[in-house]
Amino acid sequence: MKKLGLLLLPLLATTLMLGGNAFAQDNSVFFTTYYSNANTYLAPDATVRIVNDGNTDGALYADIYVLDDSQELQECCGCYVSKDGLLSESVDRNLTANSLTGKVNTRGVIKIMADSTPTGWNGTTAVKSTAGLRVSATHVQSLAAAGGTYSLTETNANDANLGSAEKSGIPEECGFVTGTEGEGALGSGKGVCSCTLEDNDF
Question: Residue 159 in contact with residue 28, Cβ under 8 Å?
Fold first, then answer.
């Protein structure tokens, strides 16, 4: 009996930490991460990986918004991720290669919304936030003290707060960049990131 009590203690602690439900689901719909040392000579490329965990019956879109280190939106796109699918995006080739201003971006923030809009992503404010994506990213760390070499670390993206202003504001800004919001594309083809084929990891 004493052994059973000791075995149940960790379960009880977990239950209390999760607000009374030891099997609580993570219903996050908005994620943030960063990129660093992108498009830098001799530095390796970083990768953002997005998994559809199968929480929904259908596919989801990963609405991706790439900002520079001045908090300016430089690229956006929506990438299809089927149920149980894996999407791998190169920071250098997919997410920062077509910046709105033509600037070569080396560091900044990447925001990702999980979207189940039935008609698919089109860069407008019509985002139907739906839980089911999981996001991780590699980060390029400079080892200046080691002669200018670089190392890679990988972490899960952070669950982020999605307020109403952010939910409508950043897609609307993206719409002006892509031309789906208002008249014409602000970027004239610039500012739109690209999506790799699913399960083409690298």
Answer: yes
Compute the distance between CA of residue 88 and CA of residue 153 in angstroms, rounded to an integer: 16
Structure tokens of 8? 């149940």
- The tens place of each residue's pLDDT in the chain, 202 residues long, gives 455 444 444 544 544 444 444 445 678 999 999 999 999 988 999 999 999 998 877 789 999 999 999 999 999 999 999 999 999 999 999 999 999 989 999 999 999 999 988 766 666 666 888 999 999 999 999 887 666 689 999 999 999 998 888 888 888 888 888 776 555 556 567 899 999 988 777 6
Instruction: List the structure tokens of 45.
Output: 């490329």
Residue with tokens 């504001």: 169
- Token representation of residue 159: 């669950």
Q: 160 is written with which tokens?
A: 């982020």
Spatial CA neighbour of 137 closest among 39, 34, 28, 51: 34
The DSSP symbol for 168 reads H
b (16+ CB within 10 A) / e for 39-56: bbeebebbbbbbbbeebe
Work out the number of other CB atoms within 10 angstroms of the CB of residue 167.
16
Question: Is the alpha carbon torsion for 113, 116, 121, 122 positive or negative?
Answer: negative
The one-letter amino acid at 5: G
**List of domains in the chain:** 25-178 (2.60.290.11)
DSSP 154-201: EEEPEE----HHHHHHHHHHHHHHHTSSSSS-TTTTTTB---PPTT--
